[in-house]
Structures are given as structure tokens and as C-alpha cells.
Amino acid sequence: MKLNAIVSAALLLDGGVAATAAAGKFSILSMNVAGLPAWLNNNGVPGDKAEVAALIGTKFAEHGYDVIHLQEDFNYNDHIYRTDTHPYRTATSGGIPIGSGLNTVSNFNWVDFRRIKWKRCSDITAADCMTPKGFTFMRVAISAAVDNTTAVYADFYNIHADAGTSALDYPARQSNVNQVAEYIAANSQGNAVVIYGDLNSLYSRKDTAVRALLSGESAAGPGMKDVWVELKHGGVIPSDKPECDVPAVGDCETLDKVYYRSGPLVTLQATTFRYDTPNFLQADGSVLSDHNSIYVDFTWSASSSVQQSDFFGGDHGAWFSDIPALAVSSKPKAATLTFRGGSRLDSVGVTLADGTVLRHGGSGGAEVSLALGASEYWTEAQLCKGEKLGKIRNFYIRAATSEGRTLAAGTATTDCATFVAPDGWQIVGFAGQDGSEMDQLAFVYAPR
């Protein structure tokens, strides 16, 4: 994992509270593994497809990439997973025509993995509607806390967009990219984002779809940067680069892309971009895929003004986040805590000293509240979770202040975790997933 031991190492703060590193590095790889069954498409790759897939998995393990997104990982997924050694991996959604071909193997754990199918596809020049192509979402812990207290997350998206250049392919691909941008706006607010995969787009052919992701091209978009454009072309989109051969030679462009943005909690910076196909060759020099794999190194640094805890609960409900509001607030402080609960935890809320109200969940249960003094801070929380109708939810919350006062709501269980603000910090808000109750929660910290 190269320098990732630095990334995930816990540092001991005064008072015995552990927190993750304030900065680190991670690497990503995007690879279309050409996993269509041989009778349908051999993708120009020589050799037995099962053996080729097994060698791809071996290469994944050998080179130690931190988060690998796979596209066209259809009928030979078990052979890749048999030889790869990454500790975290998505369960395959199946071969042709059932699965999406999108999978991820990772050195980092994540919360809430989701598969989303495209709303629009085109079969004019490629069989894009044959499978439920689309994108995946996961919130990846690029630096996980050993005691739940402080963690660093980024949202990772794996994409396989509509292929082809017909009059129907272009609008289908534009619809795909717009769908991703809308999903980011709804689910990744306040978060750093990394998008990569087979975008089936080339700037050299004036493909406008991916430009909707770029901060300099779409003011209403998700504000992304293309790593190839940033590191290889000084941030200026080239329009005259040839499409790459496989393996790539010289300055060329691939259909596969990597995009990213920072967030209030963490600053990301891409430092290395390369086509890594030389690491994916057979013994005789033949390729393992008809796509060039893309390698990118990132550095990251945590914010000094707002941080968050680990998540606790279940992967259900709609994502919410107080981070955007807290990131622009001048020295936020909790003035009143307000919870609702009964058999389970129905809602959580905090009113800040400036009058801002941050509240999430439903209207059920009984309401309890606690007003904090001018020099009193919310410093500790306990959550307990349980199962309701087959879903894990938060059942209980207990808050403790710097003055030793407490507030609790819901019903305690035996499956609980404690969250303590780092020394000199306080709890001022929330992030997580909710509906009529609190499905998943994390706490947001700010300096006192």
C-alpha cells in the first residue's frame, strides 16, 4: 500500500483520544477489463479469457493500487477475485445480461455501496442497453478512525457511459453524465468526490457530455477537474490529441477518464497521471484488455476548521450533511440540542449560537432538549443501533457536554459506540442518512 500506512495510522492526542492522520496519499486505478464472454466479443485480447482475468487479478495484487474501479467485469469476475488480494471488494451483480459490469476492489472500507442504472441508453452502434449499465456510488474511508472519533471520507463513483458516436449515442451519453451530476448534487454535498471509469468520451471529437462535470465548463455542475487535463495539459482541454493505441504511446487521449474535486472536510490534489498498461501485459507482451488502464496518485489533507466522525447505523435513507453550512459559519457553537425518540431514535437537531437550526429525521417520538451555557460545549455522544423490519437503524443517542450534563432519546441497545470530540474541538452538527427515523449518523466537529 506504499505510503498508506501513514494515511491510516492513528495519532494520539492529549487526553487519550485517537484521531487519524491529518494528511496522506492514496492511489487509484481505472480499468475496463474486457470481461464480455468470448463468444460475444473477444475484444482483440489473445488467450483464454479466464486465464487472462486471473492474470489481471494477480497484477492488481502485485502493484498494490488502493482503490481499483473495474468496468465490463462481467463473466470472469470470479477469476479476477480468485487472484486479487485486496481486503475489500464489491459483490458482482452478475454476467451478461444481468450485471452492470461495475465492481471495485480496495484497500479501504466504505459505507453505502449503490448501483444506479442509466435512465437512457442507445443500441445504435453498441449494445449499451443489453445490460444495466450505469454507475456505482460508495463513500470510501481514505483514513479510518480506530475509535470512531475522526475519519476522512471521499465519495467514489465508477462509471461506464454509453458508447458510440451516432446521432443517438451523443444525447444518451449526455443524459448519463447529467444523471451522475444530479446524483452528486443530491448525495455528495459537502464531500470530496473522485469519479473514474469508461466515460466513452474524447475531447478531440468535441464530445460535450463530460464537460458538464468540469468546473471551468459548467457553473451549475459538480465542479470537477480532469486529471489528464490538469497534469498533462496545464488545465487547458486539448482538442487535437489522437486516440490512444493499446498500449498507449506518446501524448494521446483515452475514452477512460478520472475526475475529482475537494470538499470542506478534505483537500485532494492529483500528483501523478499515467497509462499503466505496461503493468498489464501477458508474458509474450500481449495486452490483457483493449483499454489502457489509468493510474493516478492523490495527496490529501484534512481541514483544520471542520472534521467528522465515523458513521454508525445502517445504509438506508437519504443522505444529508450539515458540513456545507458549518464550513462557512464563523466559529459555530451548539446552543441547544434537540432530539426525538421513543422505541427508536426519530430525529436529531442542534441550534447554533447564531440561530441556525440543523435538524434531521422524522416527527415521531417524544422531544427532549438541552440549552447549553455560553462556555459549555457538546463534547461526547453515544449511539446505539438495532434492527427494525430487516434494516439497521439508530435506536438511541446520548449527548454529554463539557459541564458533565447529558441529554438522551430513544431506546438503548447492546450495540453501541462512543464518539468523543478531539481535544479542543466540539460537536456542532451531523451527516448521515435519514427518513422518518435516523438510519445512519456521523458527528461534525469544529474548534471551540
UniProtKB/TrEMBL annotation:
SMART domains reported for this sequence: Jacalin (SM00915)
Annotated SUPFAM superfamilies: DNase I-like (SSF56219), Mannose-binding lectins (SSF51101)
Protein name according to UniProt: Mannose-binding lectin
Entry annotated with the keyword Signal: yes
Keyword entries, A-Z: Signal
GO biological process: phosphatidylinositol dephosphorylation
Region forming the signal peptide: 1-19
InterPro entries (UniProt xref): Endo/exonu/phosph_ase_sf, IPPc, Jacalin-like_lectin_dom, Jacalin-like_lectin_dom_sf, Sph/SMPD2-like
The species this protein was found in: Trichocladium antarcticum
PANTHER family: SPHINGOMYELINASE DDB_G0288017, SPHINGOMYELINASE FAMILY MEMBER
Ranges of residues in domain Jacalin-type lectin: 317-447
Entry's Gene Ontology cellular component terms: cytoplasm
